[in-house]
Structure formats: structure tokens, C-alpha cells
Amino acid sequence: MDGKTRSDVTPGKVVDIVLKADQRTGKTTQGTVKELLTKSNHHPHGIKVRLTDGQVGRVKKIYE
């Protein structure tokens, strides 16, 4: 799953996100979702989330 659909991303899931500072390079950071910040059902760049460690970014990959 690519993280562009809100229903695929739920708190507690392990995901790869791209932080705002890493958007140019595309470097991903792995973590566990604490809360969803995007309100719409779909976003072309990925759903924005806050991880349990406080980092905020857009979901690029969801681990099952």
C-alpha cells in the first residue's frame, strides 16, 4: 500500500514517511503512526501523519 488513501493508514501501523526537510531527496523515516493529520480521504502525495516520536510527514509505504 502506498499511503495515499486515509482508510489504509491507522494509528499503530508501521510506516515509512518523508519528512518536510527530506522532500527534495525523498529519504524516508520509519515509525509507528500516532495520529492522522490529513482530513481528506485521499491525497496524491500521501496522508500526513504524526509518528509516536513526534515526527510529521507524508506516508510513502505501509507495512503489514
From TrEMBL:
Alphabetized Pfam families for the sequence: DUF2196
PANTHER family with a match to the protein in the record: YWBE PROTEIN
Protein's name according to its UniProt entry: Repeat protein (TIGR03833 family)
Taxonomic lineage from the root: Bacteria, Bacillati, Bacillota, Bacilli, Bacillales
